[in-house]
From TrEMBL, chains A, B:
Family: Belongs to the RuvC family.
Gene Ontology annotations of biological process type: DNA recombination; DNA repair
Active site, renumbered: D7, E68, D141
Source organism of the structure: Streptomyces swartbergensis
Pfam families in the cross-refs: RuvC
GO molecular function terms attached to this record: crossover junction DNA endonuclease activity; DNA binding; magnesium ion binding
Keyword Transcription regulation: no
Taxonomic lineage from the root: Bacteria, Bacillati, Actinomycetota, Actinomycetes, Kitasatosporales
Binding site for Mg(2+) 2: E68
Record keywords: Cytoplasm, DNA damage, DNA recombination, DNA repair, DNA-binding, Endonuclease, Hydrolase, Magnesium, Metal-binding, Nuclease
Protein's UniProt name: Crossover junction endodeoxyribonuclease RuvC
PROSITE patterns: RUVC
Free-text function comment from the UniProt entry: The RuvA-RuvB-RuvC complex processes Holliday junction (HJ) DNA during genetic recombination and DNA repair. Endonuclease that resolves HJ intermediates. Cleaves cruciform DNA by making single-stranded nicks across the HJ at symmetrical positions within the homologous arms, yielding a 5'-phosphate and a 3'-hydroxyl group; requires a central core of homology in the junction. The consensus cleavage sequence is 5'-(A/T)TT(C/G)-3'. Cleavage occurs on the 3'-side of the TT dinucleotide at the point of strand exchange.
Self-association state and partner proteins as the record states: Homodimer which binds Holliday junction (HJ) DNA. The HJ becomes 2-fold symmetrical on binding to RuvC with unstacked arms; it has a different conformation from HJ DNA in complex with RuvA. In the full resolvosome a probable DNA-RuvA(4)-RuvB(12)-RuvC(2) complex forms which resolves the HJ.
E.C. code: 3.1.21.10
Length: 179, 179
């Protein structure tokens, strides 16, 4: 199973591809950050994020995309940007019929460190160990994207297979309409 | 000047096209709502909104897109969906090099009714009068989309011309990069 994890953000959108199955050693296929300049206007930043994510999907052909679920209890301005960047990631994946799962930050932390309240350093250390890397991926957004992908591989493999079948089916018959 | 107004939302995304210039009678070119089913998954709802907005852009070829600026002091869950729907509208317009302006709800209300605290009925009544319609557009999201377009036409025509030149220029040279 190959998963693209996306830690959404307007300034730095972490992306990481992990391959493997639950219970076996995992392999990092790629990791990076899609950046957009803070002084660009919002529309152009979203276009740049779309282009960046499309490149990752083209190059790595993931079967699943895992995106961090955004909450609004954090800083108000950041959250709106994060929600908008996550919308672009969801759109890019769903347009291709790739199933998308949303995982909360605490689900991801719990999956890779055993604690939902682990800090950035702990997540980075475990990602490094689990993927047998020589050093923690930088910046933290990149490590978080890999952690999301790992979390997704480890959670409910049966559910993933079902979701993939549903996503492929519904991609052929979009449900929206214009009235 | 032809403007597409978008009142973003996941369940109902209001869209309205108005043509005219400040100081002259305005004309409604089209109005409607892009709907997505509440029980569909988020990714597919965003894809459906993208398809709906693309159809409006294809059919009406607006020179500007005006989107409601989202604030997060409202209901938390609604706001995240609104932010994500607005991201899709911004993305669709910016991808085509169409300049996008964000207007706050109070700017829009003040533009069409003279009061930033006007209610839905008042906005609907003024939209009906200003566009010489026989009845207020339904639902309110559709009327709000028209009010956004009117607000945009009336605010700073000179600024619109400048913004259009910049948007066309930057669309040719997107600023994002993948690292």
């Amino acid at each position: 199973m190959r998963v693209l994890g996306v830690d959404p953000g307007l300034t730095r959108c972490g992306v990481g591809v992990v391959e493997g199955v639950a219970g076996r050693p995992l392999t990092m296929i790629g990791v990076g950050v899609v950046r957009t300049p803070a002084d660009a206007d919002l529309g152009h930043r979203l276009v740049a994020i779309e282009q960046g994510i499309e490149e990752w999907l083209d190059e790595h052909r993931p079967e699943f995309v895992a995106v961090e679920r955004v909450f609004s209890q954090h800083n108000v301005r950041t959250v709106m940007g994060t929600a908008q960047a996550s919308a672009v990631a969801l759109l890019c994946a769903s347009r291709r019929g790739i199933p998308v799962a949303l995982h909360t930050p605490s689900e991801v932390k719990a999956a890779v460190t055993g604690s939902g309240r682990a800090d950035k350093a702990q997540v980075g250390a475990m990602v490094t160990r689990l993927l047998r890397l020589s050093a923690p991926p930088k910046p933290a957004d990149a490590a978080d994207a890999l952690a999301l992908a790992i979390c997704h591989i480890w959670r409910a493999p049966a559910q993933n297979r079902l979701q993939r079948a549903v996503a492929l089916h519904t991609a052929k018959a979009p449900k929206g309409r214009t009235a």
